[in-house]
Amino acid sequence: MKIGELSKRSGCSIQTIRFYERKGLLSKPERTEANYRTYDKALLDELIFIKQCRSLDISMKEIETLIHNKNNPEQSCSSVNKLIDEHICQVNEKIKELSSLKLTLEQMAQSCDANKTIKECGILNELSH
Amino acid sequence: MKIGELSKRSGCSIQTIRFYERKGLLSKPERTEANYRTYDKALLDELIFIKQCRSLDISMKEIETLIHNKNNPEQSCSSVNKLIDEHICQVNEKIKELSSLKLTLEQMAQSCDANKTIKECGILNELSH
DNA sequence: TCTTGACTCTATTCTAAGTATAGACTTTAT
DNA sequence: ATAAAGTCTATACTTAGAATAGAGTCAAGA
Fold it and tell me: How far from the centroid of its chain's Cα atoms is residue A113's Cα?
């Protein structure tokens, strides 16, 4: 299949597919005589793997590591477990940060209502110190 | 004061201060004969306002809007309230996304332990479809 | 007075993960 | 034969800075 069909089947945009290839995440496909990329099922699977990882917010660098792991099927998968555990920690940290942020913003929102002028605005006032 | 002192007083790095100026967020300061930037209290306050906004993850574009508002002190502050409300919504959305992500990652982590080989790895298996 | 170190200047490059565009070429359908 | 749709490469843009090179400036000590 050509890149347009791969795009439809995978749900990745054509630009994104070419981007992953350029970055070395997705293997280089064969080319037709007219230099068009041609993909098979194996490459579709590679792309789906990448997309699945990205949907879990796993970075491209981490995906590279996972792909490297996949290519060594006899080794221990402890590093994969570790990567996911660390990723969960990062997500937890981010959730904490955002929750605290949300609290601050909500308090700020309560310090004003929309019927004041800018110079009386409780929000802008709080933002100034 | 020169940019080094402004940096220390505000907690923004020197590069960041110059960056904000270049982007039009921070007003251009006076210059000495040797072309060094010289800042006064008013500019320090501008920078603190920007920093405070950024710490709440308010985008530079939104900060630009807020600064524009500040310069029109007689107008209604309803747009400021709206901006903060929308920002709270964005933060809430992000928290929801991350919470769902966390759940998925934790389920995935449970599908494997570190004592398997790569080819048996429950995590990599789940990532492949 | 000279020199050394600290400070500042501009301009450029890099980051992540794509998105968007221009201009050229190829394929497909009518 | 022509037009539309698809594909190609290369480049620029996005956010919010961080990092660097190379040049110029300033203050203190010898």
Answer: 37
Q: How far apart are the CA of A86 and the nearest CA of chain B, in angstroms?
A: 11
Rounded CA gap, A3 and B20, in Å? 41
- Asked if residue B30 has pLDDT above 90, the reply is yes
pLDDT attached to residue A24: 94
Contact A69 B94 (CB under 8 A): no
- B59 beta carbon < 7 A from strand D? yes
Mean pLDDT of the B38-56 span:
97
Neighbours of A58 (CB within 10 A): 19
Which nucleotides of chain D are near protein (any atom < 7 Å from a CB)?
6-10, 15-20, 24-26
- pLDDT-based confidence at A114, cuts 50/70/90? confident
CA A4 to C1' C28 (Å) is 14
Q: How many whole angstroms separate alpha carbon B36 and alpha carbon A104?
A: 37
